[in-house]
Amino acid sequence: MILIRQIKRYHPANFLILIIIGLLAWFGTFLSKDTAGIYFDPDPMPIYRWIYSGIGGPNLALLCKILGFVMVILQAILLNSITNQSNLLGFRSYLPGLFFVIITANFQEFQMLHPILFANLFFLIAWERISNIIEKSNAVTAYFNSAFFIGIASLFYPNYAYFLLIIALSTSLNRISHLREFTMIALGFITVWYFYLTIYFIFYNEFAFSGIDLNFSFGLDALKSLKPEQLFFLSYVGFLLSLASFNLSLYMSNVKIQIRRNLKFLFSWFLAGFLLFIFTQSGIEIIYVIAAPISMLFAIFFLNIKNKWLSELAWFIIIGLTLINQFFTGLL
Fold it and tell me: To which H or E segment does residue 273 belong?
């Protein structure tokens, strides 16, 4: 069994471990003939409808699964890149991306090409654009670019439009916000939709608003579809998340302002994803949204925990529950 103290180091071998764990996590999905390769959306956004019409056939199921896997790995790599570039952990590590792969691997029913994978990739790029804002001179461009990529994300998964609120909120995290920044956020998002609707109208002589459902409706019905093993895993993640949050609160005031801004942004990110799950039509696929901030908090927690035996035990439980959800469903 791989020990957490070994893989938390920034070593090329640990990047290889990330890829291997990802392949093992998707291995059953690759072999299964019963698992769909691409998500069927009865009311898709037009761009996803074009993708589905091109590669959505049963003969291309394996290709779709491979593309889904590649997108998950790309998001894990991007998460690591942003974390290390911004020095959010204090030193370089592959842990955030590794946790992202492991957490999402516990929900095999969404190991497929799904519109949320496209959207989440663009949202990570949006975060990267504002993660290193220091001077006012680069803030305006950064916020425009960030909102622009959120606009692209919303073309695949419309509920990502709500994340404009946390981008706007980030302008006031540990600094004074400016009206010009809010204006650029709005312009960045509107620009994407303006060109999208214009191009669609040119080709089809109509405006396309299919797939957009921004209605609010409280409910946790999606949890009923989860297996007991998945619910147990989520409970354990919630327990570790509480410990990680408490641990972070003890020294958060001592970290650099830029790191503090990003940590607050991650908390807003998690809260927004959780609220989307409760109050919108988003289902369990939202795990891809909240897995990124959870992975960051887990990485910080495991890198700073002083009791090495406790960290190894917590790590073994995560791996054990993941193995159960991968290969022994129905055990609980």
Answer: helix 257-279
Both tokens of 284, joined, read 């369990």
234-265: buried (b, 16+ CB within 10 Å) or exposed (e) per residue? beebeebbeebeeebeeeeeebeebbebbbbb
Cβ atoms within 10 Å of 176's Cβ, excluding its own? 7
Task: Please enumerate, as own/partner, the contacts of 313-322 that have beta carbons within 8 Å and a separation of 24 or more.
Answer: 314/4, 314/240, 315/3, 315/4, 316/1, 317/236, 318/102, 318/236, 318/240, 319/1, 319/102, 321/106, 321/229, 321/232, 321/233, 321/236, 322/25, 322/102, 322/105, 322/106, 322/233
Q: Which of 53-57, 116-120, 134-138, 290-294 has the lowest mean pLDDT?
A: 134-138
CA dihedral 169, 164, 260, 96 (to 10 degrees): 160
**Mean residue pLDDT across the chain:** 85
pTM reported for the whole predicted model: 0.91
Alpha carbon distance 97, 78 (integer Å):
8
- Res 210: pLDDT: 62
Report residue 141 as tokens: 């461009």
Strand partners, 113: 38
Q: Which residues contact 263 (CB under 8 A, 6 or more apart)?
A: 88, 248, 252, 255
In angstroms, the CA 275 to CA 295 distance is 18
* In contact, 154 and 161? CB cutoff 8 Å: yes
Alpha helix positions (H), 87-135: 95-105, 115-130
Q: Are the CB atoms for 157 and 130 separated by under 8 Å?
A: no
Per-residue pLDDT at 135 exceeds 60: no
Calculate the dihedral angle through the C-alpha atoms of 295, 296, 298, 303, rounding to the nearest 10 degrees.
Answer: 130
C-alpha 16 chain-centroid distance: 21
